[in-house]
Prior knowledge:
This protein is of the alpha/beta class. The chain is 38% helix and 11% strand. It is built from 18 helices and ten strands. A ten-stranded mixed β-sheet has the order 2-1-4-3-5-6-7-8-10-9.
Amino acid sequence: QGSNLRSCKAFSSWSRMGSCQSVQAVDVNDTETATHSKAPTVVSDTSKVDGLEGASILDNTLLFLPERAVVEFGLRPNMDDKGDSKKTMWFGRVWHVRAHLAEKYKQNRQWEQELDALSKEKLDKEFTAESMAMLIKVQRQWKKAAIKNRANLNLLDRLKFAHVRGTVLYMHGSGGCAYDNMRICRMIARLGYLVIAPDDFAYPDYTSMGQLRHKDLQPLHGVDDDVDYWKDDLIYASGAKGTHTYSTRADTVLQDPRAACELYEKCYQLRASELHYLIKNLPDWIMIQGFYIGGTSEGAMTVSRFDDQRYGSKVIGRFINSFSIEHCYFTPTEDCAKLGGQLDVPTLNIIGTHDEYFGPNESVAALVKDDKVRGYGDVKLDGHGYDMLMEQEVYTGLVCLTEEGMHGPCTTHDNFLRLLFQTFFTRPESIWKIADLWSHDPFLKDLVQVRKQRRKGQKLTLAFVPKMEFPQKLTLEQVEHLAAAKQLNVCRAHMDQEAEEVKAIKADAKSKLTNLKRFGRLQLTGKPPAQNNYYQ
């Protein structure tokens, strides 16, 4: 009976953890195992696993795992951070982890002893038709449980006692989780946080959702693959296709403003539904611990408008990167420009002064707003969300305006973002007084300049972030070592190289905007084509 009881407990644990996981007996007196200080066995590298047929949004959700989570899952690290000497983190998709756990289960499923011939004969006689029927019934229920577990993220229960620092739900931009999107996920994982990022370009192209947005996917990267921090795309193997993919240009918006508004609204509804679905399927321990929500560009617009009120105090904070939180071409109406969630959730807004999409001058938003016939948006664009947060009486907030920052912030302010996120994730309620928090450090105190601040009632700050005086391709530790060794010439060489890259990015953006101005007087094309359903 005791043996049967232990088996029932083991099965219950297996069911909660998710399919394809091994069940190992744990001796409660074995403190090394009980406290998870002993690393689980690492099985063979699963970087060559085949694609998953009919993968859902949860199956293809991206995970960026910190070192503690990698050890707990027994994965082989395939990702490092900028300046790391070795790989300690991992990135891939939910179904990759399931495939790894399935392989681990197969390797651990070994019988300790072989039955002799007499015992087998005895069992054969006792094994009746009724027993076989019961076994088939159990098998059927087991298969149902395995299928059901694919519709949630219970496999993350393995991390309940792994001591990850927290959880961040990240929404990528309109081009997917590449470029600065992945860099941001990567730096947050390096801080010790679990990052979960739904990928709405990963729907199979033969599905209805894949017809809206799709990119071919790169296979899971292996231990020895080159995954340099500054590589542009480590996620996708093709360009975007589908009815809801776009690369915003002012001329296309002005040519048919109504169609543009409908497109952006449908994209928001799609992304918001993905975020709600993700939260609904989070394991209980994450819901109890709480989580952050953040995003970039289109993902930031989604986070800004997202109605998170039903989740209450489970939402610890939100960050909105590369979106200005104001009425512009990305928000069909003035109400859509407002925060859609709880006003007492600490809010962080990051945007560059030279953002080529949402900046106050020489941006797509500015060009659309300036068109007197077809344009729309705030009469005066601020290029940041301070006034909106003030108007809505958001209780705690910080707006960081990065000097000469572009739509992708990492090129000019990568190291600043790391310091900012570290402070925000540890002290979200105090983020509005970042200048005070950093004033005690001779290096940090010069990184922000308070432009506006409200201390009574609302706790809200607009901070200007000057151009960085050190290279962003190097870590702060590397810069410090070079300064101590009086090798500032190396820093200058990196700064010159980065300045040329920024100059090229700005020149390209300016050229595109100059060309787009020629289309400012295009005539409207009339009504959009007939649609069979809302999502076409």
